[in-house]
Batch of 2 targets.
Target 1
Amino acid sequence: MEKSKDNQTDNIISGVHNYCDRWCERCRFIKRCTVGLAELERMSEDKSDIEIWDEIATNLTNTIKLISEKAAELGIDLTNLDDIEIVKKSPNEIEKLAMDYGTAAHHWMNNIREKIDELTQKVIEQELAIPDFKEAFDVINWFEFFIGVKTRRAFQGYQSENEFEKNDSDGSAKIALIAIDNSIEAYLVLYHQFPEYEDDILGLLKQLSKLKKHLLTAFPDAISFIRPGFDE
Ligand code: SF4
């Protein structure tokens, strides 16, 4: 038992939990992260087979691939933000944009939650695979306020001369940007599935795209920041 704990400690990636999306149950590093191991222990109290979490991580990889394909099918180039014009904003204003997005997304998700649950239940009753719109819904739901929290943290060390603070800002901005990209891709899945919500989805996509551009402008080094574990 002691030996197995030592092995776990040897395997830990230092600082991996600092710039992740905190979605431990879907994280491929759950067994190499101190926070993840604690979470795993907590979850295993309810789960009889710990391997179920490996399965969930595999499912997530497949889902992300599926979501990316859907985005491509719609012919939307999410990497090209050149068409979006932005007026330079202060850190406070950008943080507000991020929090406003979270609130708007939260309200909208509450409006469609019943419909998503109802449709998902029907699929489960027919013993079919969990639909991709349910996965997309969960992704948006997970990140709705996470983006604002990480945006706020990024601006704590904004333009700092201190190397640690600057790195922390870039790392926080990077995970906020990743969460934005994952959310954008998830909205495209919903857009494809529920065209009746086109106006709402386009509005939320616009908010996210603007925020993304502001973050890329404020933190030009964020994308090249190397997150422990994930980018190595
Ligand atoms: S690195 Fe993975 S396991 Fe660790 S806190 Fe982040 S999401 Fe959870």
Target 2
Amino acid sequence: MADAAPDDLSPLQRKTLGLLRRSPDPVVFDPSFVATLRRDVEEAFDDFHDRLGDEQLFVSKHRLASVLGCEVQHLHDDAFTWSPAVAGGQVAHRAIQLLINWRGDPVPADVVDEAIARLADDDTSLGDWIAGLSEADLADLRGVAVDKLIKFQECFPPLDKRAAPTTESSVRWPIDGPIVLSGKVDLTLGRPAGAESRKVIVDLKTGWVAPRHREDLRFYALVETLRTQIPPRKLASFYLDAGEPVVEDVTERLLLSASRRMLDAVNAEIELRVEGREPVKRPGTSCRWCPLAADCDEGQAYLTGRRDDDGEPTDFD
Ligand code: SF4
């Protein structure tokens, strides 16, 4: 996986390599398990199609987490706006993508500048936002992205091309139909060899550990299994600020649980958006940034309770 001798690696890079390395025993899933999983999802989708009517449903990891959280917040139409913190993550992802395929030993700030230039040229809301930034705002954005890129280099060894690293890889399943599961994977390493599972899916994170991050990766493992019929072998949420990965082996149980969660979320979306069910309030961590919090008794009670418990709200549930 690494494109460097072990002695050239830092302790952190060696630790990453050890956690993600394949064990001598090949991981091979039972093909009948995968076929049954796929058939069960297809049958559930057929039922959902009847209830959806003419509606289309694009299911992302964000949408799953949102509809399974507070449904009132989920349905609230909140216009998204870019900020240096959010855009910095996108720029860093683009920079990592360039870095992995860049020859030689590039300077992080140069890679980030190239990433910003390419994103500004894109015909997207982020491209428009970057193109309108002042020099000082650009410096802020550059600072956020360079910090993340350097942390990535500190945590990951140089990646060997034979490990088939890909970044920002789009995945979707099925190819068409009213319900489509989709996502963009931060980093993948390895690819299946025959029936052997070799792929590792990595989500790059800054900030706190949250249970949702693990669910996000399990959703990607499910999509990968449905589209290729070979599950990935490992999932890793990599917390760049702390230099710590949280790694999980993919198992049949994990895929079944991800499938149930996805189907529950699709069912809830149809109930709420097509069948008109009343949304349920579910106070939780998301009350902290909810635009409805000021007028929400349940949200205020939750936030006050947390302050009484431990002085001030935390990032953990
Ligand atoms: S404040 Fe909390 S409970 Fe109230 S709508 Fe927002 S997320 Fe839901």
